[in-house]
């Protein structure tokens, strides 16, 4: 049963997590964590909702938790540096190239993924689920636990914010 | 210029249109199974943390404590009377009576 579940949903989970963490190794590791977690918590799955929706929710939560931990680590490094303490060399963030993007759009997509990092969590998740997973607004609403109107609002604000960020980027 | 930037922004925002799903790397299933196995083993090692076991250990600890306490109490009662008779014997031997106090 575990094998069947992994084989059926591995690309879906990996793609979702990858869009959020923008790193292949971390995305692979976290996707594995998602399946282990799902298998261990299968009793808490309510059959009223779709299994894939539940899986998306766990994948998104796992990726966001990871990003929050990373943020906290970065803050700790900053504080350590401030007090003149020695810290491990930080690996600088390079451009992220999503393998599914068509060749003509590669450069634009790399800029977009950079700009996406400046969006609030829920806007980024909504935007990525719609764009990279091709989900409908009602599906995103169920995953995020908000109304369809709420998703519409998130998408609108995400696009607005992206426009501002990209405008500044191209002007400079 | 402004028009160029707007065009670039539009192109960038729509750059994810028609995107394909990124595929999970090879041996994903095998690696995930290995991770599940490791996590199950870890869980077995920490089984004593389960609430049922914790309660059982705590109850056993309380019972043992109560037994020791009861045992000590019964012993102390015995020594107390022993002590009293020793004091009486000592008083008699040296000719002390309660009226001497």
Characterise this structure.
- The complex is a heterodimer of chains A (about 170) and B (about 100).
- With about 170 residues, chain A is mainly α.
- Chain A folds into 2 domains: about 1-95, Orthogonal Bundle (Rna Polymerase Sigma Factor, Chain: A), CATH 1.10.1740.10; about 95-170, Orthogonal Bundle (Arc Repressor Mutant, subunit A).
- Chain A is built from 7 helices and no strands.
- The radius of gyration of chain A is 18 Å and the shape is globular.
- Chain B has about 100 residues and is mostly helical.
- Chain B has a domain at about 45-95.
- Chain B has 3 helices and no strands.
- Chain B has helices at about 1-15, 30-45, 50-95.
Number of helical regions of chain B: 3
Structural class of chain B: mainly alpha
Uncertain segments of chain B of ≥5 residues (pLDDT<50)?
none
Please indicate the percent range of residues of chain B in DSSP E strands (runs of 2 or more): under 5%
Provide the helix percentage of chain B.
Answer: over 70%
Quaternary state reads heterodimer
Rg from Cα of chain B: 41 Å
Biggest beta sheet summary of chain A:
none
Order of helices and strands of chain B: HHH
Compose a concise summary of this entry:
Chain A is mostly helical and 172 residues long. Chain A has helices at residues 2-21, 24-40, 51-82, 106-116, 121-132, 137-144, 148-171.
